[in-house]
């Protein structure tokens, strides 16, 4: 496992997983439309970042038209992800909606292979397979049980595809701009996309309860600042595939939180699936170390035979 400075990468990854696990709970608690939740979530996040933007103003002003377009594209797909995925939570359960996020690493591995020629080791693929099987088990008993649920499931699938595109663009862009500038411009772009969508659709920007405004702020601070912003920063050190695999922990955390806070029941399939997802995640995140250990053994064994 790589390190970020002197901190193991697993630590910020785990913090991010816990943070994004709260996202579906907050969405369920709010009665506001998904497009409004998404807009204010990202708007408040951008506002929270403003006090720290001064050291990055020169970089912002020097952004080329091409880079600005790519950052806006990333923001567009992030907004599309939130719109579809948060909308799915209005139609199906937390476990069903978050389980489909397990498709994200599949989309990203395929995309990274064709776009960046990025290869994934067999050991990492095995860990990914175990995690995905576990994630599927979490929502097995609930996916597609009714027409409404099916629509919710489909929204989550397309939302997962959208966030995969967002992550693949991000993997390239954080090598060209600082992670702070990347996150700020992407969040601001996504806010603009949401605002235009709400204007066109005639969705009111005001008139929401104090509880809803509190949830909008919670969505900005917890899953966005300590989740997405943290993941964007980590793209400097690990691949989009690793980030997406880590997010497989979200169905586990979200399902547990839904059980405790929303009263959504968990079956034995979901419990076993959660354990498998965590195990697969551990295998994937340690793939590089296991590969290094195996290579070291091969290098050492011939020396033993000589002695």
UniProtKB/TrEMBL annotation:
Primary location: membrane
Membrane-topology descriptor: Multi-pass membrane protein
Alphabetic keyword roster: Membrane, Transmembrane, Transmembrane helix
One Pfam entry name: EamA
Gene Ontology CC: membrane
Domain EamA residue range list: 13-139, 151-285
InterPro entries (UniProt xref): EamA_dom, EmrE-like
Subcellular localization(s) per the UniProt record: Endomembrane system
Membrane-spanning residues: 7-27, 39-57, 69-88, 94-116, 123-143, 149-169, 181-200, 215-235, 242-262, 268-287
PANTHER family xrefs: ACYL-MALONYL CONDENSING ENZYME-RELATED, EAMA DOMAIN-CONTAINING PROTEIN
Family classification: Belongs to the EamA transporter family.
Protein name (database record): DMT family transporter
């Amino acid at each position: 496992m790589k390190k970020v400075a002197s901190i193991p990468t697993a630590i910020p990854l785990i913090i991010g997983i816990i943070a994004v696990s709260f996202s579906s709970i907050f969405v369920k608690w709010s009665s506001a439309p998904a497009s409004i939740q998404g807009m204010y979530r990202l708007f408040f996040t951008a506002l929270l970042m403003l006090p720290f933007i001064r050291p990055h103003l020169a970089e912002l002003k020097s952004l080329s038209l091409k880079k600005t377009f790519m950052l806006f594209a990333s923001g567009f797909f992030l907004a599309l992800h939130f719109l579809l995925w948060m909308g799915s939570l209005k139609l199906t359960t937390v476990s069903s909606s978050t389980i489909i996020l397990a498709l994200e690493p599949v989309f990203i591995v395929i995309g990274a292979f064709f776009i960046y020629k990025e290869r994934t080791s067999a050991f990492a693929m095995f860990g990914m397979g175990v995690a995905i099987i576990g994630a599927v088990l979490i929502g097995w008993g609930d996916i597609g049980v009714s027409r409404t649920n099916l629509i919710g499931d489909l929204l989550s699938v397309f939302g997962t595809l959208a966030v995969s595109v967002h992550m693949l663009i991000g993997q390239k862009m954080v090598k060209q701009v600082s992670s702070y500038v990347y996150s700020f411009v992407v969040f601001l772009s996504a806010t603009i996309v949401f605002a235009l969508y709400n204007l066109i659709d005639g969705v009111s920007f005001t008139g929401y309860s104090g509880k809803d405004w509190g949830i909008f702020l919670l969505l900005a601070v917890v899953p966005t600042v300590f989740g997405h912003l943290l993941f964007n920063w980590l793209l400097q050190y690990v691949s989009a595939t690793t980030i997406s695999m880590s997010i497989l922990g979200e169905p586990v955390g979200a399902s547990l939180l839904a059980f405790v806070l929303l009263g959504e029941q968990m079956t034995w399939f979901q419990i076993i699936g959660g354990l498998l997802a965590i195990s697969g995640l551990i295998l994937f995140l340690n793939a590089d170390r296991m590969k290094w250990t195996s290579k070291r053994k091969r290098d050492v064994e011939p020396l033993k035979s000589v002695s």
